[in-house]
Here is the input.
Amino acid sequence: MKKSFFLRLGLSVILLMHSVVSIFSGDVNNFGHFYLDTIGFSPFGVYIAWAVKLTHLLSVPLLWFDRYIKPVAICNILIFVCGIYFVHWQNGWFVVGGGTNGIEFNVLLIFSFLNLMYPEIYLIKKNRFRHIRDI
Here is the structure.
């Protein structure tokens, strides 16, 4: 397995809990009817809400088994960006503390998925002459 085991495990737990709880509680239907339909997605709000939750749910085993990471990441990043734009932006940055229902958690998830897609990106250029330093 790759070095990303703990990141994949953490993301999968978050996606699993977020999807399963809202599916069994009925919140996914409420979100579709009472939020998405009212902001202009009618009559497709419930279908969009279910597509989001099923995407999260399908992502879980793919993350566990380290399969199709880039498509999983891209789909979830698109969901989180849309979530920021349509749901969380007007609430500011903070999820709790300085505010409620903000964008900070979605931003963290986006960067976590970016790290899964591109684990070898460095901010500092690697030393080309490392062998000289090792002498």
